[in-house]
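Lecture 7 notes: from sequence to structure.

We start with a single chain of 178 residues. Read the sequence below before looking at the structure.
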Amino acid sequence: MSMRPDPTFHPSPKLAMEAPPENFAYTLLLSPDASKSDALTIIDVDPGSPTYREVVHIVAMPNTGDEFHHFGWNACSSSLSPLSGHAFLERRYLIIPGLRSSRIYIVDTKPHPTQAKIHKIIEPEEVFRKTGYSQPHTVHCGPEGIYVSTLGGGGKDGTVGPPGIFIMDCESFEILGR
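Now the structure, written as tokens:
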């Protein structure tokens, strides 16, 4: 563990705007009819790079029918509060929810974005069992962990009970509950 905060964290929006630009962009490839798996693509956005504007890596997922949605990092500037106990996290893992499948992928972007790979897959049964929710939609990091909003309640079709928000641990990626 480093004793310095991740250099991609910024204590204010103004300082974030003054920081160097990102070198890589993370985008999703979706299979609208679920005939193929969704994928994460990494695009070189460094104007000085010989591969500028090119897809430099693809992480194809092993399942079909996920329908990826709003993904996010395991850590960000909002989790820098020293009171949270997570002041020295590294922005390293992408949390990618599958809206249709209720599956969540954790993708590790280290040691380099062009070598990103699946770190962990959280199967829908675990999401249902620990939260009573389905259809994870949007990922946000915060001082207590990773917040995931959902569009579905429980049951096979997501209509048993209301949707809600659950929290995941930002280091182990364990689902902590509602």
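The two ends are 29 Å apart (CA to CA). Keep this in mind for problem set 3.
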